[in-house]
Amino acid sequence: MSDTAKDPAVxxxxxxxxxxxxxxxRNLARNLARHGHTVAVHNRTAARTRxxxxxFGHEGAFVPARTAEEFVxxxxxxxxxxxxxxxxxxxxxxxxxxAPLLDEGDVVVDGGNAHFADTRRRERRLRERGxxxxxxxxxxxxxxxxxxxxxxxxxxxxxxxxxxxxxxDIAAKAADGAPCTAHIGPDGAGHFVKMVHNGIEYxxxxxxxxxxxxxRHVAGYEPARIAEVFRTWGTGRLDSYLIRITAEILAHADxxxxxxxxxxxxxxxxxxxxxRWTVQTALDLGVPVSGIAExxxxxxxxxxxRLREASxxxxxxxxxxxxxxxxxxFADQIEQALYASKLVSYDxxxxxxxxxxxxxxxxxxxxxxxxxxxGGCIIRAAFLDRVRAAFAADPALPTLLADEGFAGExxxxxxxxxxxxxxxxxxxxxxxGLSAALASYDALRAGRLPAALVQxxxxxxxxxxxxxxxxxxxxxxxxxxxxxxxxxxx
Length: 490
Ligand SMILES: NC(=O)C1=CN([C@@H]2O[C@H](COP(=O)(O)OP(=O)(O)OC[C@H]3O[C@@H](n4cnc5c(N)ncnc54)[C@H](OP(=O)(O)O)[C@@H]3O)[C@@H](O)[C@H]2O)C=CC1
Ligand SMILES: O=C(CO)[C@H](O)[C@H](O)COP(=O)(O)O
Known about the structure:
By secondary structure, this protein is of the alpha/beta class. The protein is built from 20 helices and ten strands. The chain is globular, with a radius of gyration of 26 Å. Bound molecules: NADPH dihydro-nicotinamide-adenine-dinucleotide phosphate (NDP) and ribulose-5-phosphate. Residues 20-25, 43-45, 48, 84-87, 90, 93-94, 112-113, 138-139, 141 line the site of NADPH dihydro-nicotinamide-adenine-dinucleotide phosphate.
């Protein structure tokens, strides 16, 4: 490994260092090297470092390091370090090891899926030492890390200035050539936006899977045919990475049994936690992210094997699949339901980012987030360019449904959306994502909500008070007495 002598005042020759060389770190290091940067590479277990240099050393300039000391010494100053290890305690362990070796002005990036609250804590700690800590969301999986991920860095403007040339080099490029990275905001803003990205990812995957279920059990289509339907949808307004990979998965036959691959995969969806974090955080912020919540709950329900087995015989409708011409019409309704539900679910994610930005003073620009998500990430989708344009035209837009174009599309889709959900209910096919999105749409457009009765109930049993529609002030009715009303506040 490296034995290059270092001048401590100048540092080493590597422009950037990557520590943590599993799937993501290894491929990001290669991406950086392929773009002409000299990359110091390090991993707790040295075998990964050796494998990277032996396997891909020809792709660019790597400086392998055995220890954290050797790694830090290999970097030119001010140093730029990318930490790409498992989130949680491992990240703290790596930062604890690096911190004493770093100097004022150095920049450390955590590219893992950290919780934004951890990022805020780590940023504060390293700032005390004069080190810039950047919590950067990275999305795109293995392929994205190598060929261009979407990168969402949060940190100081100085850190962004130091990282910008590197990140813009390695990030995916949108159709207009813009790099899919931008300064999201200070401290935890980048990891917050990545968390919401993953929450939306859960919602989108759930909606697509519900659409598949309806095409299968109500339209009566086989997976190969559904693959064709998805392929067609992928050429229109639903054009997205997740739709494309779904079409590929559905067209795939299991090499062992010859059956459709989707039919041999156990139907228990796992989760590492970012979707759950999104919902927990949304609850704390008081933002209704029903699409993401239903997706998290659907994964959870799918894993409750004993509960499902105990409930499997419960009665439900037994309807035959639709006739061929009705099925084709129904497939079109599903496309409309999927598009409208997707829009509502993404919109809920933006609502959450707006609330957090206000809470933490992050100044997140909603159009910038849409721009960064146009390429490289798992939820990349053609319609995000229109989301970017809508927010560019009005950064204070309270909901995408207030944008004339999106409102028109959802308005046109809503009769089909209702029919698709109603048909699902008639056939006993669960569509928590599609129906939650429709309920959210209906609640938002309703002039008056049943919340009035809830407030009255709260006042009845707990004297929790209520406001009136016809005059200012806070009131309580003496439910246990003569039912007269008293003013309880202003
Ligand atoms: N995989 C993916 O598609 C994506 C992953 N991410 C995030 O990127 C990060 C890296 O992901 P991935 O590449 O999949 O790797 P993993 O999450 O599987 O983490 C493995 C890496 O963490 C290191 N590590 C674990 N514990 C420690 C420790 N205590 N001290 C030092 N190093 C430790 C491992 O070192 P060793 O080899 O010695 O065990 C290895 O380099 C994670 O935070 C993940 O959530 C983000 C986007 C997509
Ligand atoms: O970060 C990612 C993509 O952007 C990961 O793919 C994501 O963490 C997967 O999450 P889960 O395992 O919970 O489905």
